[in-house]
Amino acid sequence: MTPQPDYLSVPRRALDVEDYIDILRRHWMWIVGPSFAALVISVAVAFLWPDTFLSYAVMRITPAQVSQSIVPSNFNLQLNERLQTMLQDVTSRSRLIDMIRKFNLYAKERDKKPMEDIVEDMRRKVQILPMEMQGGPQQRAGSAFRIQFAYEDRIAAQKVVNEIVSLFTSQNVQDRRQKSRIATEFLGDEVKGAKDALDKIESELTAFKIRNAGALPDELGANLQTQRSYEVQLQSIQDALHRNQQEKMVLEANIQNYKNQLSALTAVETEAAGSVKNERLVEVERQIFRIESEISAMKERLKADHPDVRAAVAQLETWKTERDRLAQMDEQSKQGASKRRVTNQQVVARQADIEGQIRSLQARVAAINLDMEERVKGESVANESLRKINARIMANPNMQGEYQKLQRDYSLAKANYDDLNSKKNRSEVASRLEDRSAGENLEVLDPATLPQTPTEPKRWMIVCAGVAIGFVVGLFLASMREIKDTTMKGLKDVRAYSNLNVLSSIPLLENALLVRRKRRLAWLAWSSAMIVGVVAMSSSVYYYYWGH
Hints:
The protein is 72% helix and 6% strand. It is built from 13 helices and 4 strands. It has a 4-stranded antiparallel beta sheet.
């Protein structure tokens, strides 16, 4: 007894072309139905979808009439950034609402949607597209750009584009002038602040210079040179004083010698020629000469109020008093013997000559004394000036840091002021250029177009895409039904799954009445579907072409 095969685990046989034809014949309604339904839906959608017309205008930014190298602009935004900025101003909520009300846009939507949604929808449909120059794709976007707006009414779309173009033109002029004035005013305020800061630092620097006049670090070289000149002057004065002192000592010694000679001649002239001068008087005069020489030597080394000098001067006065007393006594003795005096003409002439020499030497000594007094005064003045110069030089390192800080702050403030003032002047020139409309302007290359054909929707593309989608869905449904149907469809399935030889086959016997009823119902269903589909498609086409 042969075992029964397990039909549940038998794999399906491979299908051939005849099998696929049988599948299409069995499930053609599942393919045609979705395809026809998709055709009806796509046609209805395509022709009921309202047209959208695209109007556009082409503008470009003309360069300034004056070169940027001569008058720099107050703007540094690139083309795309400037266009986006102007687009934000033009498509602001208030302006879009004004355009919607002015041209009666979105009349139906205003009754159903809030104004914010309508404004947002309109803003998305306003676009600015930079246009490439004709130099090749490698070139970047030039100064020309395209303004476009899509709307279901072509005339309204053209009006909106014209309005946007006029807004762009006026907004560009207004925006450039306003920003140029703002830049000029800002630079003016900055220049004023920089000028105040510069004046403050300049006042501090001037006060510092006045307060430290002659002792500034910049005057260090002059002070050193002045110090050297005072030192040289002081050395010259001291050398002159030393020479005068030496010369005075020599002159005083000569005067004393002449006086001694005169005294000797006077003694010889007396009648008692053989008598000699009072030895005591000679000794006193010798002591006076010695003390005077010592005093002269001490004055070269010491001041006049030095104790040693004062003691020597007092001793000299004592000896001079003694000399005067002895001289008086000697004179009295000479008067007693005056009758016996013998006149010697040669001695008299010699005395007169010596007296003349003494007067001449005394005059030179007096002149030397005056010169020494003047030089001593000059020495004190030179010492005081040298002291002041030395004080300035010693104080130089202390004020070096503060002075350099003031100088550095002044230089930075002046450089900042000069830079801001130069920028302000350039900004004022640029503002005057903008006021004359000689800067960058917007020029309309192509005015707003009046579209003749809609840009959306692509109706036949929608219809073709809908039919393709319906056909794919029908194939998918037919395939699913075929996969779920596990019955044997013909002799090939019997031979493949039973492994038996088929001797004969008996056709399926059905009730003729039931078969006719099924056919009528199928024909009625398809006729109704076809009529409904054709009516729907015809209605949508009629609505598109004649309905509105």
